[in-house]
Amino acid sequence: MYVQPLANRQASPTDVDEFLTKHPRSTWATGEPNLALPELKEYLTKYQDPQQADSILKIQKELDETKIVLHKTIQSVLERGEKIDDLVAKSDGLSSQSKMFYQQAKKQNSCCIVM
């Protein structure tokens, strides 16, 4: 289905100009049923996909795809940041536990000094 801006234009000005140059209105306006218009098939094929026919729609689609990739990338960076925060917290806990172990070991060893 065509979106409104493309439906209003139906064809790009360059396509229309090219067609009218090759086939002036007087050659096809009569409604001749056996008129050979090979470009017409190409145009009909092209305009079946609005994104192929309209560069603005094509760019919008590319922007939407890029936005999705950026959202995924940002999400993974945030998740990595959370994992780093978890590691820092665990590291801090391990550091305080090792200090307590050192202090307790020092106290235990102080009573066993051999002179």
Automatic annotation (TrEMBL):
Residue intervals of the V-SNARE coiled-coil homology domain: 55-115
Localization annotation: Cell membrane
SUPFAM superfamilies: SNARE fusion complex, SNARE-like
Membrane topology of this protein: Lipid-anchor
A cellular component annotation (GO) from this entry: Golgi apparatus
Pfam families: Synaptobrevin
Keyword tags: Coiled coil, Lipoprotein, Membrane, Methylation, Palmitate, Prenylation
Annotated GO MF terms: SNAP receptor activity
CDD domains from the UniProt entry: R-SNARE_YKT6 (cd15867)
InterPro entries from the UniProt entry: Longin-like_dom_sf (IPR011012), R-SNARE_YKT6 (IPR045848), Synaptobrevin-like (IPR001388), V_SNARE_CC (IPR042855)
GO biological process per UniProt: endoplasmic reticulum to Golgi vesicle-mediated transport
Keyword Cytoplasm: no
Entry's family note: Belongs to the synaptobrevin family.
Protein name (Swiss-Prot/TrEMBL): Synaptobrevin homolog YKT6
Species this protein is from: Colletotrichum spaethianum
